[in-house]
Design a protein that fits this description.
five-stranded parallel β-sheet, single chain, four-stranded antiparallel β-sheet, Arc Repressor Mutant, subunit A
Length: 253
Amino acid sequence: MPAKTQEGQLVGETILLVEDDPDTARSLCRALEASGYRVTAVDTGQEARSIVEHVRPDLILLDLMLPDTDGLVLTTALKQLTTAPIIICSARQEQVDRVLGLKLGADDFVAKPFDLDELEARIEAVLRRASRVRDTPPPPSDQIRVGELLISKSRGTVTLGGQIVRLTPTEYRLLVALASRPDEVLTREMLGQLVWGYQDLGTGHLIDVHIGRLRLKLRRASQGGTVIVTVRGKGYTISSSGADVPLEPGDTP
């Protein structure tokens, strides 16, 4: 929520507006700036990706229908570049867009046309939640260690034998889920719930694909030693001993 300096001037959070309709962009900029926010507006996904790290927004307002990319795809890309919360504003009101947008990391979904007062109320609510998360002190230890594998949750980094392992967000969440319970077998259903917050008939195959890629990256970093173990017919586990085991058919060696 915008705060005031001792001189009484409004000093608001920075909002990155990604909107290709010029009339909508102008009206939103005027309204939000009148409420004390600093607004940077772009009209393509490419511009949003290019500018987000420079602008360092406190919040992103994102339209789904952009000329160069789908907003749902852009949501995933932006979540990898910034921790700023995202509110999707779209005339596409299909339930699948709303649900998928939230699952991809958006913090709220507002259907067009919307009331400006409601939008500002939602912005304030999302910023308050983000502020509480940001101000929450980290736990005493934010590291997970299994053998030579070390995960720093506050930094989002993974090292194996001192070598940095670069993972996608999904691979990282899978590894954290497994490493948090070493030597415990986690079924595909459990991993789907931990990684995406839900599981359905297609989740098991996605888990296998991501595990295969994750296993390959860890094998390369450890020069052949296996970290993730397949328990046939049950699921996956991380072996604290680092012992190698045969791969299931279809796994990436």
